[in-house]
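Duplicate of earlier report; CPBP family intramembrane metalloprotease input re-posted below.
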Amino acid sequence: MVWLAIAGLAIAWGLPAIGIGDRLFPGDTISPRIGREAAWWAFAAIILLWVTRVERLPLGSIGLKRPTAGTFGWAFAFFVGMMASVMLSFAVIIPALRLHQDMATTRSLIAVPLWLQCATMVRAGVCEEILYRGYPIERIGWLAGRRWVGALLSLAAFVAAHIGWGLSQFVVVAFGGVLLTMLYLWKRDLPACMIAHALTDLVGFALARAHG
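Output:
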C-alpha cells in the first residue's frame, strides 16, 4: 500500500504537471480547449480507478461519498466565505501588496463561449478537488501518520498548480485553498468541497465576464 499510495500521488500530481493536455491539444481555439478539459476529466477518472481497482479501496477513502443536505449547506457556507475572501483580496490585500491582476490569463478563460466557461469552472471544481484535495490529503496523511501533513502538502500543490497566473492570483488561490482544506478536514466531504469550489469559480469568472 505504501508504494501504491506513492504511485497514486505521482499520477495525481504528475499528469497535470507535465502538461499532457497542453501537449496533446495545443492552441487557443475551441476544439483544443475542449480537448484539454477532457484530459483533466481523464486524469480524475484515472485516480478514481486507481483507488477502486488498484488500491482496492472504497471512494469514501478519499472523502467521495453520497451528498447529503449537510453537503449542500456547508458547501454554500464555504462558498460565501470564499467569495468574501476574493473580494477582500482584490479590494484590500492585493492593492496593499502593490500587485496587479494577470488580466491576460483572466481574459483567456472568459474569451470562450459561455457554455465552455461554465464547463471549465465545473471541471475545476470536480477534478481539482479529487487530484489536489481528497486523494493527497488522505494518502499523504496515511503515509505520514498525520492528516495535517497531507493537508499542508496538498494545499502547497494546489497553490503551485496556479502559480502561473501571477502573484495576485496566488493570494486569491491561497485563501480559497485554505478554506477548502479546512472544509475537507472538518467534514471529510469531498462533494461539499467540489460544490463550493465550482460555485466560487462560476460566480467569480461570471463577474469577470460581465466587467470584461
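The first helix runs from residue 2 to 17.

Merging into the original ticket.
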